[in-house]
Amino acid sequence: MIRRRTLLTFAGAGGAALTVPGAAAAHAAPAPAAAGGAGPGPVDLPGPTVRRPVGTLSLRLVDRHRRDPFAPVPGPRELMVQLWYPATGTAGRARAAYTTARVAAVLDRSAFLDPGTLGRLRPTARVAAPPVPGTLPLLLLGHGRKGGRSNCTALAEELAAHGYLVAALDHTYDAAAVEFPDGRVVLSALEDEPADWDAAERREIAVRTADLRFVATELTTGRTVRRQAGLPCADPARIGVLGHSMGGAAAAEAVRQDRRFAAGLDLDGGLFGSPVPDEGLDRPFLLLTALDDHDTWRRWREHQRGWGRHLRQGGSGHLSFTDLPHAAGPGRVAEHLPPEVCAQLFGAIAPERATELARTYVRAYFDRFLRGRPTPLLNAPSPRHPEISFVWSRG
Fold first, then answer.
1. pTM of the predicted model, to two decimals?
2. How far is CA 270 from CA 24, 201, 395, in A?
3. Phi, psi at 25, each rounded to 5°
4. Other CB atoms within 10 A of residue 141 CB
């Protein structure tokens, strides 16, 4: 059984915190594919729901005003950030890989997938496609503890196709693996089971929040934008922040600390590591969760001052808000983990439906608060989306 605290802080199924008897051995020697079964071909992620080209590119950003607290050798904080954005066209542009081969190998192991699984996932976006002119609302996207910036690619591509600039961060030394342009691969330095979870989470959330604030500055007013031609332009007056698991907790703290963030969203993350549960927020915040409830969510609801919603996505697991359900079948997760663990991670909902629901509600939320487009979808249950129940609402 996975402890609730672990479930709400980890993005992947791997690591000692999620060790299950027999699982590691099964993953080390996966059973051969069934005779006559489908070969290891590409696995297409769901494409955006509108026929608009999407571009993507990755940036290395260095915060020279901040020392990295996790680095073994003192130095400035160094990050990799991936952008998705609406493009004017994709002619001559290569289809993006899901992640680099070396990072994919680490994530395959940590998620109990057959080796090579994530390398088979195919996004829609094209590398360095020319961005549409003008400024775009900016969404900062955070991964779960020991996850990675590619974890919510299908969601990011959908938001980009609908006119957002999405910037997903790899939180270095937190993410399972980060590969930099010079070929360095930095693995996670986080303890699987900290002796003091509260202290560890406070530290991790503080670093993540500083990362989010730095990237927002770089993409709106920093040297990164001024020096590099071909980058999409972010609107400094329309910035939202969201994340899965621990990324959702960091999104909440970022809203609390920085008034540039107009709205925040948490995908099934316990609100650990910050004062948010006991102070609330004065700006909009949405919880979209798989679990029925959690102590930090109840406390947040009691103290939230701005617009707020807590919606539950029935039939889902903790990873249903990521791309991993699309990899679970091809990667034969069910052969490597006990059924009860798979149920907690993936639920019973079909991957395509889980992606559709997350895309629908995330976009509706940010359309309302960054674009001024009200929708009844956020006011009451919808017969078109019966899996979504309203746990709580304010405003």
1. 0.93
2. 27, 11, 22
3. -65, -40
4. 29
